[in-house]
Amino acid sequence: MSHRKLMASLALTAVAAGALYSCKPKGAQAAVSGDAAEKAYVAPGKYDEFYNIVSGGFNGQLGIYGIPSGRLFRVVPVFSQSTESGYGFSEETKPMLNTSHGFVPWDDLHHLAISETNGEHDGRWVFVNGNNTPRIARIDLSTFRTAEIIEIPNSAGNHSSPFITENSEYVVAGTRFSVPLDDQNGDVPINTYKQNFRGTVSFIHPDPTTGNMSIAFQIKTPGVNFDLARAGKGKSHGWMFFSCYNTEKANTLLEVNASAKDKDFIMAVNWKKAEEYLKAGKGKKEAVKYAHNVYNESTHTATSTMMNEVTTLDPKECPDMLYFIPCPKSPHGCDTDPTGEYIVGSGKLAALIPVFSFTKIQQAIANKTYDGDYDGIPVIKYDAALYGEVQKPGLGPLHTEFDGKGNAYTSMFVSSEIVKWNIKDLKVLDRVPTYYSIGHLSIPGGPTAKPYGKYVIAYNKITKDRYLPTGPELTQSAQLYDISGDKMKLILDFPTNGEPHYAEAIPASMLMSKQRKIYKIEENMHPFVAKGEGQTKVVRNGNRVDVYMTAIRSHLTPDNIEGVKIGDEVFFHVTNLEQDWDVPHGFAVKGANNAEILIMPGETQTLAFKPDRVGIFPFYCTDFCSALHQEMQGYLRVSPAGSNVALLFSTGKNNGATANPADSSKAKTTKP
Amino acid sequence: MKTKLSLLLFFFSAFMIESCVSKTPTHKEKLDLQELTKNQPEEHGAEVKPGDIQLTYPLNDQWVTEGKSIYDVKCSSCHKLTDEKLVGPGWKGVTKRRSPEWIINMVTNVDMMLEKDPVAQRLLEDCLVRMPNQNLNRDEARKVLEFQRKNDGE
Ligand SMILES: [Cu+2]
């Protein structure tokens, strides 16, 4: 290649690279206005105005941030084991990650829904989805801990969930993949998709008082892919809207084959009607298998129960329950405005945003203005359901939230921007760049009937050139925009933990007033609790050794344990005797194959340990708790199998040498 | 986030964030979070003044028993009933050394004591572990005091 040719091809490459990046907005600095720092600054010792509850995506956790500062306060483990709290490692929390497939220690968490009363956030719980092995979890917002997880049968890739109705009557979960349902023979050729694959959407009912979830019913659907959903509200309360793609029912190269049609669907579900059919006995009980895991706050222990039945409704026997509304090009977001009248579809590949009218949908149903049917389900004529289209909003519309002042804000993945438009006249009012490739966006209270409308937060997929680089993997990020004026103003970038998908924000005062500080030791009903050092002991049962241990600044009791042998399994049940806020103790023992644990004040948690060799195994507190924290340590002596070293335990005085070494069956205590 | 070491070194009260903000937000009102969380006394935390505690004779046996069970769960890890120091000072003679108000405040209002009481401050220098807030209310602390009086041979 001649020098000239090389230069030319380099230039071409540069142009091509430029073209690749041309979808990225330019001039990041120029986009930040002078008073940005002031608006996002929360002085030391001051509180943020909102809690931002942010999906961690593939890390299976939730991040809790402050808005407007963007400070990270906590990572809440939900579908993944946590090397911070011991969740999923301690004996008490392992059952939370149990499924019909066994223990699943890492899942993918996408969306969340804060519980609502009268269409507004009530701050009690947040529901989240486990995508890969379909599950819905409930997190208690007074503890920021996972309280319950229910597996969803007849589902695969639980993406279209969770979305909540305006009085938390239901949390819905729609399957991403249609598959042969659980009671069918699934051993079928994949290219028989059209005959054998079906979808479902599940309606989960949280108990209004306890929040405890049960699957009220599942609706069987044609074999499409469900993407996202939103509940109706106000006038459309009683309806749920699901976006669908792959109405082509392709089973390979979906990138091409599921984008063939000009329009896919939004599926409208009249769930009040479904309730009537259930009452009328149209529900069919089907044999399935799914786990239901509940954490008990008084025993500090989770239980996992295998369930074996679910009630399904078949639309063939339940007319007027489901309708399809054509929606351009692979709809993703499907968002209802605060009044409940408008349903915004966001076709990922569409060059416009269709806005549907609930009133028109009802008229179309009354007049049967249909465009035939899809697998027996009426398809409403596009124009009969359509309120209007937002023309040329940008490229790749994904999600829409609302400010409560008549405006909608749509994230544009391909053109990397947020577009503000008026719901009534469908005119674009403003647009701001995001850095880069925005996925979801969030306005405090944005999905509810009463948004707070002060900020919009962009959750971005790509952060190249925005942060100090850290090897091949760069941080994920969010960006905060002030939307209190006519124009959106970028005021802050902040990194996020994991990949942020959806997020919601809620006024801080709704949650901070009810935060749990300690677990009362008097109310601790753990079967292996030691309420005070007087109750500490070591008990042998065959090869099982239970250590009832206490932790308080700055010692563990007992801290000398002898008489454990190879072949034993030792359960350290550590009770934290502290009764003050923010004083956890940790526990770790050398060589433990499992993990460490972290114990909140008044709580009991258990670490199981199987010694692999003879010797002295030190253990200690892993959480810096006091000036003498480094002294908070002890020793476990492990003897050979069959040894006759007596079981001894003590703190303060170890009289082990004077014990009868021959008597290995009788426990002996030396008290401090 | 952890209060621990800094609290220990500087015995300041950092615990402004206390319980029971009953106010729920409305959409119109401007929220002042700092205001919301002020003046939220802990349930156990009000200062006990001289004369607030009546010592009665003979000892109230039921209080002694209940005080003993509280001691077993919440105090015995650090305080022996002899004069031997463990994490904190042994309790032998404590009711002779200290006033009833001092004892109750040390249990229920340790932040205030470490901020202004010279004896409490000296004890922290000796023990190097803050007397933990064990979440006792005044009634419970009073029962523990009764048990201490019993321990001191009253
Ligand atoms: Cu510790």
How does this structure look, described?
Chain A: GO terms for molecular function: copper ion binding; nitrous-oxide reductase activity. Chain A: Keywords: Copper, Metal-binding, Oxidoreductase. Chain A: This is Sec-dependent nitrous-oxide reductase. The complex is a heterodimer of chains A (672) and B (154). Chain A folds into two domains: 53-510, Methylamine Dehydrogenase, Chain H; 528-653, Cupredoxins -  blue copper proteins (Immunoglobulin-like). In chain A, a hairpin with a 6-residue loop joins strand 10 and strand 11 (171-174). Chain A has a ten-stranded mixed beta sheet with strand order 6-7-8-9-17-18-13-12-11-10, with helices on one face. In chain A, strands 41-40-43-44-38-45-46 form a seven-stranded mixed beta sheet, with no helix packed on it. Chain A is globular, with a radius of gyration of 28 Å. Helix content of chain A is 9%, strand content 43%. Chain A is mainly beta and 672 residues long. With 154 residues, chain B is mainly α. In chain B, 45% of the residues lie in helices and 0% in strands. Chain B is built from eight helices and no strands. The radius of gyration of chain B is 18 Å and the shape is globular. The complex binds copper (II) ion (CU). Residues 585, 621, 623, 625, 629, 632 of chain A line the site of copper (II) ion.
CATH class placement of the largest domain in chain A: Mainly Beta
CATH superfamily placement of the domain at 61-152 in chain B: Cytochrome c-like domain
How does the overall form of chain B come out from the CA principal axes? globular
Assembly state: heterodimer
Strand content of chain B: under 5%
Tally the helices of chain A: 8
Mean pLDDT figure of chain B: 77
Ligand kinds: copper (II) ion
The CATH homologous superfamily of the largest domain in chain A is named YVTN repeat-like/Quinoprotein amine dehydrogenase
Keywords (chain A): Copper, Metal-binding, Oxidoreductase
Protein name (chain A): Sec-dependent nitrous-oxide reductase
Main location (chain A): other
InterPro entries (chain A): Copper_CuA, Cupredoxin, N2O_reductase_N, N2OR_C, Nitrous_oxide_Rdtase_Sec-dep, Nos_propeller, NosZ/Cyto_c_oxidase_sub2, WD40/YVTN_repeat-like_dom_sf
